[in-house]
């Protein structure tokens, strides 16, 4: 019986692996005939425009600086209607089984074509760097089949968004363009020059927020939220291998910008140490113009400026900057005030890596109770209990470990500390922990600057932070 059970287990495991491999088989593989067509198009473009400084001609991609337009050659993958899609265009090494089109062009060649026509890249989402929103000016992309006898630019074209159906709404993606996020660039030793990671992963146009893609959707779209909901739509009628011309143009040919960068200074008008929400003041500075546009105690004044941006089709990216001496209780109250502004897409937070995200100050209170966390991995907790006579914080580190081999429950282990250096040594010296989540329990009278300095020394070990304020002493 044991042999039979083992046989069944391994048979099912091998079957699942085979099915997974089949699912990841490219729906279309570039042929030699396809490559010959790319070469012939390149030769024709070189003969026509190769000597003109207003053009950048590469195999499969031509950039026209004068008219601010890029033409990209690609091939339809031929995915079936209603098949889940994660990418509209990928490179040859990308996931063509989840894409509508595949191109022989390296993503970095498209990147350089974009900068050639004057488009500056933004950045993709990178949660570890506090970048939770894709950033970049928008482009409009359209696609047309290469029809025999029909000159380029005369075939019927369709916007890329129209090719995808969102099954949650029963409609195509909104025609809002795509952000030129520019992918992530990394230096990989022993090389000294940065590498475009879109080249490594083969991502050109993504329809979820990917950290590697060259172009992203202009809104928040986490992969786990959209997968299975976005499918090839009825407008995608192309056969596998069908030749395509994709046109990329800036949303605004006159080089207008949507993105406005602000810093939002948060200070106290009544002495920082005793600050509360009612005596906070706000300074909104337009970083593009280096100009203070709001300096007022009323937060609605800030909202009024941001609303004007929205009505003018601008996109405010805001970095809150807290006065160092502000107590954590006041910081938390401001974060509660700001959160609906973020959740309703009035602003996008544009934080620096050293900043603490506003969500860190807004944890679910039931998480204080380990039995109510509903998580497989407990965080590491730092409890600051008292201040000694010498002004040194003392407390304990709490982490959770299995009670006994084979048991399912976990028990807390307490590690006391008596000074900040001792705390840092205990936390970083015991790494790696079995979690990257840190809970800090602390009095709300302590300052934001104190917390920021402490967390700067713990961030690499615990990139995810939640701050719980102790109840005030009676």
Description of the structure:
There is one protein chain. By secondary structure, this protein is α+β, with helices and mostly antiparallel strands. It has 3 domains: 229 residues, no CATH class; 95 residues; 107 residues, Nucleotidyltransferase, domain 5, CATH 3.30.420. Helices cover 23% and strands 29% of the residues. The chain is built from 9 helices and 26 strands. Strands 1, 2, 3, 4, 5, 6, 7, 10, 13, 14 and 16 form an 11-stranded mixed β-sheet that branches. Strands 19-18-17-20-21 form a 5-stranded mixed β-sheet, with helices on one face. A hairpin with a 2-residue loop joins strand 1 and strand 2. It is elongated and about 80 Å long. The relative contact order is 0.09. The N terminus is likely disordered.
The backbone outline, from C-alpha atoms, is elongated
| Mean pLDDT over the residues | 88
Task: Outline the biggest β-sheet.
Answer: 11 strands, mixed
N/C terminus separation: 67 Å
Helix and strand composition category: alpha+beta
Radius of gyration: 27 Å
Query: Percent of residues in beta strands?
Result: 25-35%
**Tally of helical segments:** 9
Give the tally of structural domains.
3
Low-confidence stretches: 1-7, 9-23
**What kind of assembly state do the chains in view correspond to?**
single chain
Number of strands: 26
């Amino acid at each position: 019986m044991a042999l039979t059970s083992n046989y069944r287990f391994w048979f099912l495991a091998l079957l699942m692996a085979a099915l997974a491999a089949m699912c990841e088989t490219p729906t279309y593989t570039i042929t030699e005939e396809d490559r010959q067509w790319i070469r012939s198009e390149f030769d024709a473009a070189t003969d026509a425009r190769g000597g003109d400084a207003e053009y950048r001609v590469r195999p499969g991609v031509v950039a026209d600086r004068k008219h601010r337009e890029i033409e990209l050659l690609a091939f339809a993958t031929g995915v079936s209607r209603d098949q889940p899609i994660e990418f509209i265009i990928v490179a040859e090494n990308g996931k063509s089984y989840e894409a509508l089109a595949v191109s022989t062009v390296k993503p970095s060649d498209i990147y350089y074509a974009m900068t050639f026509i004057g488009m500056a890249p933004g950045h993709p989402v990178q949660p570890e760097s506090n970048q939770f929103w894709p950033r970049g000016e928008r482009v409009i992309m359209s696609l047309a089949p290469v029809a025999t006898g029909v000159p380029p630019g005369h075939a019927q074209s369709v916007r890329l968004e129209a090719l995808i159906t969102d099954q949650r709404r029963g409609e195509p993606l909104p025609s809002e363009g795509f952000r030129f996020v520019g992918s992530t660039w990394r230096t990989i030793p022993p090389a000294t020059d940065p590498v475009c990671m879109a080249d490594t992963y083969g991502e050109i146009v993504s329809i979820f927020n990917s950290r590697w893609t060259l172009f992203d959707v202009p809104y928040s779209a986490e992969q786990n939220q959209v997968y299975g909901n976005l499918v090839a739509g009825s407008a995608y009628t192309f056969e596998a291998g069908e030749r395509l011309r994709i046109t990329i143009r800036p949303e605004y040919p006159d080089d207008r910008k949507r993105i406005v960068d602000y810093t939002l200074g948060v200070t106290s008008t009544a002495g920082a140490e005793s600050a509360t929400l009612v005596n906070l003041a706000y300074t909104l500075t337009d970083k593009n113009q280096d100009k203070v546009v709001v300096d007022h105690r009323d937060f609605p004044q800030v909202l009024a400026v941001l609303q004007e941006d929205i009505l003018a089709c601008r996109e405010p990216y805001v970095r809150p900057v807290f006065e160092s001496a502000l107590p954590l209780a006041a910081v938390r109250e401001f974060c509660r005030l700001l959160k609906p502004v973020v959740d309703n897409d009035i602003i996008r937070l544009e934080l620096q890596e050293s900043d603490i995200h506003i969500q860190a100050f807004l944890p679910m209170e039931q998480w204080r109770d380990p039995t109510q966390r509903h998580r497989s991995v407990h965080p590491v907790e730092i409890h600051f209990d008292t201040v000694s006579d010498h002004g040194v914080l003392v407390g304990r580190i709490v982490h959770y470990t299995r009670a006994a081999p084979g048991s399912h429950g976990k028990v807390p282990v307490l590690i006391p500390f008596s000074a900040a250096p001792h705390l840092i040594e205990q936390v970083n010296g015991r790494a790696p922990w079995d979690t990257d989540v840190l809970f800090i329990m602390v009095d709300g009278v302590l300052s934001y600057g104190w917390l920021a300095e402490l967390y700067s020394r713990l961030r690499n070990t615990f990139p995810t932070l939640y701050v719980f304020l102790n109840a005030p002493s009676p």
